[in-house]
Amino acid sequence: MATTTRTRAPHATGRRGSRSRAWLLAAGLLASAGLLVLAAGLSVAVGSKTVPLGEVWSAWLHPDDSYASAVVASRLARTQLGLLAGAALAVAGAVIQGLTRNPLGDPGILGVNAGASASVVLVTAGLGATAGRSVWAAIPGALVAAAVVYLIGSGGPRGRATPVRLVLAGAAISAVLAALVQAVALAQPDVFNSYRFWVVGSLAGRPEGTVGRVLPFVAVGLVFALLLPRSLNALALGDESATALGLRTGRTRALGAASATLLAASAVAAVGPVGFVGLAVPHVVRSFAGSDHRWLLPYCALLGPVLLLGSDVLGRVVARPGEIMVGVVTAFVGAPFLIAAVRQGRAGL
């Protein structure tokens, strides 16, 4: 009796594999959301000052004038800042890496950090340390610096930005602004004393209402980022291939630069130029989720705050009763993850 064997069509097998991968990535997003909830809970419950968990819970549900309520209120403010800044920095890093096709891209590559630092120093020198700690002291400089970098990288108002031009323009503008910061800070000791605490990066000691001031900028930046995944995927193929697919590369880079600038400027203004979040998180995500920006950006929005809040909690615990600023801890925590992702050979664009 003749026997027949059934073979599955390759495209059917491919669709099933793609569907299985999508389910796995969706499950990973849920797991990342769980990690985020855990990190936020630890940020409220754990600190440099020991407060029993029962008192933390009571102070959260029924705040009053007690010591526990004051501690919980300060931790809640830090947690909110960490959620906002972590998501903004990680998504900004992923967008910049996609725009420039540079795996070492981070918010500093567009001059955002240097512009914010120069703005803070100049405002502090002119109006005093109190004005220099305001969110509005950092945002204008960050936006102006990024706009100048993009204008130079485009070769003029009607030019087209390229990855190499953007990187070179960002490096040049950052160098000039860094020299300006050093000149002003060294000439005025009071400015230096105020600036040196801000430049390290910290979730503590920020003015009241900081979250409300930067939230609109972060929201607009995230909305812009949500419009970019398919365009960034096409841009990864190269400008010629992207143009052949019907992509307007100039408009994509302009929208991406606006998104990354708003996100990075808001985060830097709120917590200072915290490093490694925008660089490390996208690399780590690519090591298990791939380079598809439809998955990369949501993962970054969830895992960026996990890294920032986890680093902040670690900095409070290891130096009790003092604290280590979160900008220092992120470098120590983020570097091993980044090195591991690169060594796996799957972190490149």
TrEMBL record:
Classification from the root reads: Bacteria, Bacillati, Actinomycetota, Actinomycetes, Micrococcales
Q: Which UniProt keywords apply?
A: Cell membrane, Membrane, Transmembrane, Transmembrane helix, Transport
Please classify the protein's predominant subcellular localization into one broad category.
membrane
Query: Which Pfam families does UniProt cross-reference here?
Result: FecCD
What GO biological process, any one, is recorded here?
Answer: siderophore-iron import into cell
Q: Under the cellular component aspect of Gene Ontology, which terms does the record hold?
A: plasma membrane
* Compartment annotation: Cell membrane
Chain ranges passing through the membrane? 76-96, 108-129, 135-152, 164-187, 214-233, 254-276, 296-317, 324-342
Q: According to its UniProt record, which protein family does this protein belong to?
A: Belongs to the binding-protein-dependent transport system permease family. FecCD subfamily.
- A single GO molecular function term of this UniProt record: transmembrane transporter activity
Q: What is this protein called?
A: Iron ABC transporter permease
Q: What InterPro entries does the database record attribute to this sequence? A: ABC_BtuC-like, ABC_transptr_permease_BtuC
Q: Which species is this record about?
A: Pengzhenrongella sicca
**What membrane topology is given?**
Multi-pass membrane protein
